[in-house]
Design goal:
heterodimer, A: 2 strands, B: alpha/beta, Rossmann fold
Chain lengths: 394, 551
């Protein structure tokens, strides 16, 4: 019995020292501080309804009138695209690149998937799979181009990838309204519906979470996160990508083809965003406007929403799963809070506050030793208590 | 001058440091500095007298830089007290240090490359009138100072266009313009030629004559013996002692520093020369910026069992030569042969895996991934090979085993062992990590550039021994060095490089330091070597052969 306890303590001490745990701690710290400040803000704005408001804020998916279970389905459905963009940004971050272009890559994914999903009638039951692969390819190419400029000409990827958001959106709009496709695909400002055969299967989710729109994409998302985690942490390929991110010159010196690594990192990141876009447009639910893409001159928000998710997860792919779920959960509170006198944007404010703190949290966890010392000094003033407690515990 | 026999016990002199007869301008009392996992300074006491040159000596990671960073306000000490002229002062930032007239010439200069020397000197302390620059006045003052101390600079030249030597003079002028009276020199001689070092020494002597006080950090014992009045030796964060240079010998100092006897003379056994490992023919590199031939039709060979050293003043194409041989930059013309295989167009990985080890010039830029930990850095060139990977997956166990082995064998000191982030290691230990990795590769050819930059005598001895061991095992070694001591003591053959060309090819035993200096400065050129290095390949190898037979 005693040995077992010791083992647990040892394991705990080891865990405490890992970078992953520190990052987790930092995120938790940021979230609690963000929520706290958000609540203070809510009390300040509307004191009389604050109790109800806070209740609804914290309830998240349980606000759903059909119950928490359906709420969970809804949460997962709404979060799926964010999983992918979050993973895309996180992957790029881990390899030292800042992919702001997830929106453009996502749009390209939507476009190619829609193209195959609408025009590829002859593909039969493979249609949805090919549409997904096509979407991935679209994102891949759209990520590759900024990577290429970065590797070959040292043009910063932030600039090119931002530009490629716009280029992506307007290129897609342009192609859709061109003479080639207009008659085939577009009806006024929307594309035609995706063929039934091109829609992703529900799996068992339509019986499990009826009418939430959830389909197998969520599995693909979690699978992608796990694959990315393994690639980054366990493989030679991932090690090379990370090395290039940490020090490009030293990686070159070590014999890594650093230019290829940069191009591949961006392209893979784009591919993940493209996958998200494809799965979004191919979703079987009627919720995304009947599976049509609407021609607008606005960059889709999902790509940018991926950035806070990746930041909160400290770019860890597994962490992205949790940070997406958290942000999805709290986003669900927005509408219910309106009925008690708060604007739904207050949720966005809270998310922003959390983000600010997660940047601080990084600094705080890095200096966790110092913070501990501060506490230690205070504790030292009454040393006898401290020692006794410890001895008893062990 | 020096009396070598009268005071064999240098500890006596510590007791004489009652300081009754001389005023301490700086006193550091019981300074401790705790970093995570390491106590960098442990109750260090350090006194600087007015008008003396005081050397700070110690191994890599002994805490010299930390101590000086505390004095200059970059770190705040965990405990302890600093006094100036007997009064306690607090230094929380370099600005505070400046207010107390403490100045420092850093090892890596802190200058703005695109500014003129004048602008660099007055940066931050500009004299203004109604918010406008009063450069003329500043110029006058700086000219006066530079006259007074014989520190000649071209005030209107931009930093990026002037030599390292002039950049250093600019740094010194910067301190003097700010009326600093305590001057810290952090390894100032590492980047200079012998002639320039002499000049710097005389400048330092002039400075103390005018009442300045100097703290001089260096690893070079000869320099200490020449200019310093006293030496404080640090070892593992503690003061071992403060001695007067008149009372001690070089050997005593190195013993204090390392804790054991250090052998300065390296004995080298005669070895037999084997096959040509590295053949360079007509190699040319054109600089992208200046369009000049930075490496200008260079030809030479390195054989098994010899250490060939490329000597020369920094900036004569040696760095580029090292980079082109290891594949970091492409060759514009010519051929590189490794074991008779043309590798001119081969990738860096090919060269790494087929017999080139490379200790790079810039350890932070090329040699190490500072944000990664020690084990990964020690396996930086091996992780893609079995058994460190299997079917594309990293195998951590052998990586850690290798790291443990190398840490022990090469005495790499760090806070958390194999998991230490490289950026938390001292410069010397970082360099040791690189040397460990490259020598452990056991390649046919070792290309080592500035191997011992920033290493203490103990570590230098160790590194040189390892390099000579490689040679004795029948490996070929190409050394690129700016330090004449190293060139003379380690190499078997010397190639002097001047403005991209090889101007002398000579066996080490057939040349003196003075003569070498003349070739390095471009005063003398050996037309034979130049012809050899430019056109005639066959003759080069023949010449090399002749040389080796002499050996």
């Amino acid at each position: 019995m005693k040995i077992k306890k010791q083992q647990i303590i040892d394991y705990w001490n080891k865990l405490k020292e890992t970078d992953g745990f520190k990052a987790f701690l930092g995120s938790m710290l940021a979230i609690s501080m963000g929520l706290f400040l958000g609540i203070v803000l809510m009390i300040f704005v509307n004191p009389s309804n604050s109790l109800q408001g806070i209740g609804r804020l914290l309830m998240g998916m349980f606000n759903n009138p059909r119950g928490g279970w359906i709420g969970l389905g809804q949460l997962l459905y709404r979060a799926t695209p964010l999983f992918f963009t979050g993973l895309a940004v996180a992957f790029a971050f881990k390899t030292g690149l800042f992919n702001i272009g997830a929106s453009g890559q996502y749009t390209m994914g939507i476009f190619i998937a829609a193209l195959i999903g609408i025009l590829g009638d002859s593909l039969g039951s493979f249609q949805w799979i090919l549409a997904v692969l096509g979407g991935m390819l679209g994102g891949f190419v759209w990520g590759f181009i900024p990577g290429f400029f970065k590797a070959k000409f040292n043009v910063h990827e932030v600039i090119t990838s931002i530009m490629f958001n716009y280029i992506g959106v307007f290129l897609v709009n342009g192609i859709l309204t061109s003479n080639y496709l207009r008659n085939e695909m577009v009806d006024l400002q929307r594309t035609a519906k995706i063929d039934q055969a091109a829609r992703t299967p529900y799996g068992f989710f339509d019986t499990m979470f009826p009418n939430t729109g959830l389909d197998i994409s969520i599995f693909i998302a979690i699978g992608t996160a796990i694959i990315l985690y393994i690639v980054l942490n366990k493989t030679v390929f991932g090690r090379e990508l990370k090395s290039v991110g940490l020090n490009r010159d030293a990686s070159k010196y070590a014999g890594i083809n650093e230019k290829r690594s940069i191009m591949l990192s961006m392209a893979i990141s784009g591919m993940i965003a493209g996958l998200g876009g494809a799965l979004f447009i191919l979703a079987p639910s009627a919720r995304n406007f009947g599976n049509t893409y609407s021609i607008e001159s606005v960059i889709v928000a999902e790509g940018f929403d991926g950035i806070p998710i990746a930041l909160l997860a400290a770019s860890n792919p597994i962490g992205v799963i949790f940070s997406t779920l958290f942000i999805g959960y709290i986003s669900l509170s927005g509408i219910p809070m309106q009925s008690v006198g708060y604007v739904s944007e207050i949720v966005n404010m809270i998310i922003s506050i959390i983000l600010y703190f997660s940047a601080f949290a990084l600094i705080m966890t890095q200096n966790i030793g110092k913070i501990k010392n501060l506490f230690k000094k205070r504790i030292k003033k009454k040393p006898s208590d401290q020692v006794d407690v410890k001895a008893g515990d062990l | 001058m020096r009396n070598e026999t009268s005071y064999p016990l240098f500890f006596e002199s510590i007791q004489r440091n009652g300081d009754e007869f001389m005023q301490n301008i700086i006193e550091m009392r019981d300074i401790s500095k705790q970093f995570p996992g390491i106590l960098a300074n442990d109750k260090v006491n350090f006194n600087l007298r007015k008008g003396e040159i005081h050397a700070l000596l110690g191994e890599n990671g002994a805490g010299k830089s930390t101590l000086m960073s505390i004095l200059f306000g970059i770190y705040t000490p965990t405990s302890g007290q600093i006094l100036k002229n007997g009064e306690p002062i607090e230094i929380k930032s370099p600005n505070d240090a400046n207010d107390h007239h403490i100045g420092m010439v850093h090892q890596h200069f802190k200058l703005v490359d695109v500014f003129t020397i004048l602008d660099n000197i007055i940066l931050g302390v500009e004299t203004t009138k109604y918010g406008f620059h009063q450069k003329a006045k500043a110029r006058e003052e700086i000219e006066k100072i530079s006259e007074q101390y014989d520190l000649r600079v071209d005030l209107d030249a931009k930093i990026q266009d002037v030599s390292v030597n002039m950049q250093q003079r600019t740094e010194i002028l910067k301190m003097l313009y700010r009326h600093n009276d305590v001057l810290i020199f952090d390894e100032p001689t590492a980047v200079l030629t012998p002639q320039e070092i002499k000049q710097l020494m005389s400048t330092m002597k002039k400075l103390v004559k005018e009442g300045k006080s100097i703290i001089f950090i260096t690893h070079k014992l000869d320099e200490i013996m020449e200019v310093c009045d006293r030496v404080t030796v640090l070892r593992r964060g503690k003061v071992i002692g403060t001695v007067e240079t008149n009372d001690v010998k070089k050997e005593d100092l190195s013993k204090m520093m390392v804790g054991r006897d250090v052998i300065f003379e390296i004995d080298k056994q005669e070895t037999k020369l084997g096959d040509v490992v590295l053949g360079v023919h007509d190699l040319t590199v054109i600089s992208e910026r200046t369009k000049k031939n930075v490496v200008d039709h260079v030809s030479f060979e390195v054989r098994q069992g010899e250490i060939v050293c490329i000597a020369g003043v920094d900036g004569n194409g040696q760095s580029e030569l090292g980079m082109v041989l290891t594949g970091l930059i492409p060759a514009n013309e010519g051929q590189i042969l490794l074991n008779d295989i043309d590798i001119t167009q081969k990738s860096i990985r090919y060269r790494n895996d087929n017999g080139i080890s490379h200790i790079p010039e810039d350890r932070h830029k090329h040699g190490l991934i500072l944000d990664d930990h020690l084990a990964n850095n020690l396996a930086l060139k091996k992780y893609h090979l079995e058994p460190f990977q299997k079917r594309g997956f990293i195998n951590k166990k052998p990586i850690y085993e290798l790291a443990h082995q190398l840490i022990e064998k090469f005495d790499i000191r760090s806070g958390d062992g194999v998991k230490s982030k490289l950026k938390n290691l001292s410069g010397g230990n970082q360099q040791k990590a690189i040397i460990a990795r490259e020598i452990d590769k056991n390649s046919d050819l070792l290309i080592s550039i500035q191997t011992v930059r920033g290493l203490d005598v103990g570590a230098v001895e160790f590194a040189h021994r390892r390099i000579i061991e490689q040679r004795d095992n029948g490996k070929a070694v190409l050394l690129i060095s700016f330090e004449l001591d190293e060139v003379m003591s380690v190499s078997d053959r010397i190639l002097v490089m001047y403005e991209g060309q090889i101007v002398k090819n000579v066996l080490t035993k057939n040349i003196t330091v003075e003569e070498l200096g003349l070739y390095m400065a471009g005063v003398k050129k050996d037309p034979d070597a130049m012809i050899l290095s430019s056109k005639d390949d066959t003759k080069t190898s023949k010449e090399a052969e002749d040389n080796t037979h002499e050996n």
